[in-house]
Every structure is written in C-alpha cells, then in structure tokens.
Design brief:
Layout: H1 3-28, H2 48-68, E1 73-81, E2 84-94, E3 97-105, E4 111-115, H3 132-141, E5 151-157, E6 163-170, E7 179-187, E8 200-204, H4 214-217
Antiparallel strand pairs: 1-2, 1-7, 2-3, 3-4, 5-6, 5-8, 6-7
Amino acid sequence: MSFHGLLFVTIALQFLPACILQEPLSVLDISEPPIDGKEEIQESPDKLSDLISLAEKSKKSWEATKAKISDSYSYTIFFSSGLAPLARTDFIVASGKVVSRKYHRNSSPIEEWTEGADAIGTHRMGAQPATIDALYDECLNIVLKRRPECSSFTVTTFPDGTLKDCYNWPCGLVDDAAHGVQIGEISYPGFSNNLNHSEKKSYDGCAKDGSVPDTCREEK
C-alpha cells in the first residue's frame, strides 16, 4: 500500500468511532410518538361541586324512595374510634316521625336504653334524633357549605342511591371524629345492597404541608 493510501486509512479510522457514537445519539433525541397519537390523561380529582351534585342527586332519589315506603324506615348511626365501633344508636321512623331511639354502648361502662315515641330525646347520650330528610339538610346546608380550604370532604351513597356519608374533616384535626352525617345501616321495604353500585366522591382542601389558615381556626 502506498504512503498516501495508508494515511487515508489512518485518518478514516480516527473518525470512525465518533461516527458510531453519534448515530445512537440522533436516535435517542427523537421521542417516540404516543400510541394511536393520544397522550395518556390522568383522571383529575373530585371538585367540591361534584360532591354537592352527588348529594343533590341522592336527595332526589330519596324523595322517590320515600314516597314508595310511606316515609317509614329504620337506620343506625355508629360511634367508632378508628375501626372499633364503641356505640350505636338505632332509629325507627314512621310516617316521617322518629318513634323509637335505642342506644347501646359496648365500652365500659356498658349502657343501653330505648326511648319510645313520647320520650324521644330525653337521654343525653347517643346520636341526636333526626329523620333522613334532616340529615340531607345537614349535608347540603351545613357540611358542604363549610370553607373548602379548611377541610377535606366525603360524600357516599348506599347502592340504591340513598345518602350514607356526608362529612368534613377539618384541616389539622388530631382526633378521629369527622363532622357530619355517617349512616352505618339503613332498612326499608325493597332496600337491597345489590341494586346498583354505590358512589363515593372526596375533596381535600387542606394544605399539603399541614398548615392551617388562621381563618379556618375560627370556623366551628
């Protein structure tokens, strides 16, 4: 091989590694297109207005149910600490009026009593006597009217659409007691847990760093 030919091969070999390294870089710089030309969209969290809409829809469903059952039903409110139920209050409503309130506390000292129609509300302990209509009013006019930046909120329904939970959890709360409506059980003619899927929506207005605005401390 001549001197000029050898020089050409030497120079070519010096540049060859750079060419090999540059080719993959040109491929890596090109992003792969999304499948079917669509980007993955993450589901956005519920808004407080979504919770209000669910509660209003549930109330309309309850109005239809109430007419079918002559506004007569029974339901239970549980008082719990963590996952352990400590007490329960059972209500019987007939023709739109609370006619029985029964209380049972599991923790010591054990306490149990029953109030008839003429004695409703005479005991201090237990959930306050209320109809389901009154609980809807509490949900829509008190719980969901609280300042959104001061609480987290939850609304759930039973499978047939009747309200189950509507409560708020104030930001910075250290105990485990939510504020609002929490119906543990409900029963009336035709009620079934297999009619439809229950619905649940939640909204968290609390600051991620755990701080609580001074204006929230004034809210009760």
